[in-house]
Amino acid sequence: MSMTAVEQAYRRHWARLLALLTAELRDLDLAEESLQDAFAAALAAWPPEPANPPAWLLTTARRRALSRLRREAVAARKLPLLVVDDPPRPRPSPTSGSS
Questions:
Q1: How many CB atoms lie within 10 A of CB 72?
Q2: Pair 65, 31: CB distance under 8 Å
Q3: How many CA atoms lie within 13 A of 16 on its CB side?
Q4: In 1-99, which residue ranges form alpha helices assigned H by DSSP?
Q5: By CB neighbour count within 10 A (0-12 exposed, 13-18 middle, 19+ buried), where does 6 fall?
Q6: Which sequence spans correspond to the domains of the chain?
Q7: CB atoms within 10 A of CB 46
Q8: Are residues 38 and 60 in contact, defined by beta-carbon separation less than 8 angstroms?
Q9: Spatial CA neighbour of 32 closest among 19, 51, 46
Q10: Where's the RNA polymerase sigma-70 region domain (predicted)?
């Protein structure tokens, strides 16, 4: 896919796709980042233009968002398992001290 086709898709569909993703995800930042990733993927993956570019972009953006949400959920579950308590410090013995 040429840069021109992706640029045209951006001009025609960005706002509507961002609105759809934001409504679905309830997170503007996640929607915007996912859609940006989808457009970046389109630059690499569109040698033949898909039959329905907005649908391809929306599906790709949804999948990117879902992957990110899953990664964050796993990290939230696993992070407490990575916390290691400090080992107990040895107490000074009553005989050691000032003479």
A1: 11
A2: yes
A3: 10
A4: 3-25, 28-45, 53-82
A5: buried
A6: 12-77
A7: 17
A8: yes
A9: 19
A10: 10-73
- Tokens 């990117």 label which residue? 64
Digits of tens for pLDDT over the chain (99 positions)?
456 889 999 999 999 999 999 999 999 999 999 999 999 999 998 878 889 999 999 999 999 999 999 999 998 888 887 777 777 777 777 775 555
Which amino acid makes up residue 9?
Answer: A
For the chain, the residue count is 99
Both tokens of 30, joined, read 């996640």
The amino acid present at 75, given as its one-letter code, is: A
Alpha-carbon distance 37 to 95, whole Å?
Answer: 66
Place of tokens 């000074």: 92
Residue labelled with tokens 């992957």? 67
Q: Which two tokens stand for residue 38?
A: 């989808």
